[in-house]
Amino acid sequence: MTTKGIKTGRPALASLMLAGRAQQSVANHATRGDIAAARMEFTAQLQAYRERVERGLDELIPPADTRPARLHEAMRYTLQAGGKRLRPVLVLATADAFGRRANPLPAAVALECLHTYSLVHDDLPCMDNDDLRRGRPTAHKQFDEATALLAGDALLTYSFQLLARHYDGELAHALTRELAEAASSEHLIGGQMEDLLAEKKTDATADELDFIHLNKTAAMLTAALLIGGLCGGATDSQLGLLRDTGRHLGLAFQIIDDILDATADTATLGKTAGKDAQAGKTTYVKLHGLESARKHAATQTDAALAALARLPGGAPFLTRLASEMLGRKS
Ligand code: IPE
Ligand code: IPE
Ligand code: MG
Ligand code: MG
Ligand code: MG
């Protein structure tokens, strides 16, 4: 998803996108001018959130010359290569949807550190063996395997250092619990393990695939929404709705990732296209085919939109962001 991608013509999937309840009610009541104005407002708001994330990353991560410089350079290398910043934007936007109990920026940076660690390790030769990430050589190509491994370890640890440094008491406990749960052996790492175990499998089931997607990807998107909600002061029932949103949005997000791997080009993706088929990964495209994968991503997005519609004020920015994710190009 790039700002450019948002401004340019609607992708084919956008017609499915518009089936989303919230989108439909907007389309029914708004004039063409209102729709264009809403789009511009969304794009500007997304840009503002991303800029806040970039500044936060630069300010809160140890400078590159911190000893040992090679390690801190490697931490910043993949972190500052760009990326959509979806998880930290979700933290900031969800906090804004509820109010401001606490500054969500350090937590947003923590989410991006943890996500980036998962990418650095995911790319290692012993995992997906990828050479390109965020349009740059992967960390182990740019540095070496041991440095990439340690930079990933350091980013993971740093995400919890950030929470410990910037939050107190009950909130610190709740934020740490959500991040640790999502990153755990039963979620992110468990999903990664089953992703590897399912490589080359010819009899993988839809349930196995759901386990992989829910845990390697949806758990972290859920954590971003919950952490934003906690920073904003969401109630328990609102946190429940955010949990539902994360599950559906996360599934849709990983299904789209599978579709893009099979259909997009390397330059647009900023990572090597066609890797899943090459590695024999169990993906939505492999198990259900391209058309069914597209439909499933749209259905999951609609379910996420239905949960968001029940939040105070209908969470318009999050609703739009969830819809845009369905039509993303990278
Ligand atoms: C890639 O995540 C890994 C998945 C969970 C699919 P993103 O597609 O969010 O990657 P970046 O952060 O934009 O690089
Ligand atoms: C990895 O999924 C998700 C995590 C990093 C946890 P993929 O292996 O499909 O992600 P990409 O396609 O390399 O970004
Ligand atoms: Mg992988
Ligand atoms: Mg991968
Ligand atoms: Mg992928």
Model description:
By secondary structure, the protein is mainly α. The protein has one domain (37-326): Orthogonal Bundle (Farnesyl Diphosphate Synthase). The protein is built from 18 helices and two strands. It has a two-stranded antiparallel sheet with strand order 1-2. One magnesium ion (MG) binds next to loops.
Short description:
This protein has 330 residues and is an all-alpha fold. It has helices at residues 3-7, 14-17, 21-29, 32-60, 69-79, 86-98, 105-122, 139-142, 145-166, 169-182, 188-197, 206-232, 236-263, 266-269, 275-279, 284-288, 290-308, 316-326, and strands at 132-133, 136-137. The chain has a single domain (37-326), classed as Orthogonal Bundle (Farnesyl Diphosphate Synthase), CATH 1.10.600.
Bound molecules: 3-methylbut-3-enyl trihydrogen diphosphate, magnesium ion
Distance between the termini: 5 Å
Largest sheet: 2 strands, antiparallel
Shape: globular
Structural class, please?
A: mainly alpha
| CATH homologous group name | Farnesyl Diphosphate Synthase
Percent of residues in beta strands: under 5%
Helix content: over 70%
Instruction: Report the oligomer.
Output: single chain
The top level CATH class name: Mainly Alpha
Rg from alpha-carbon coordinates: 19 Å
- Physical arrangement of strands within the biggest beta sheet: 1-2
The number of helical runs is 18
SS elements, strand count: 2
Low-confidence stretches: 1-22
Number of domains: 1
- Mean pLDDT across all residues, rounded? 92
CATH architectural group: Orthogonal Bundle
CATH topology: Farnesyl Diphosphate Synthase
SSE sequence, one letter per element: HHHHHHHEEHHHHHHHHHHH
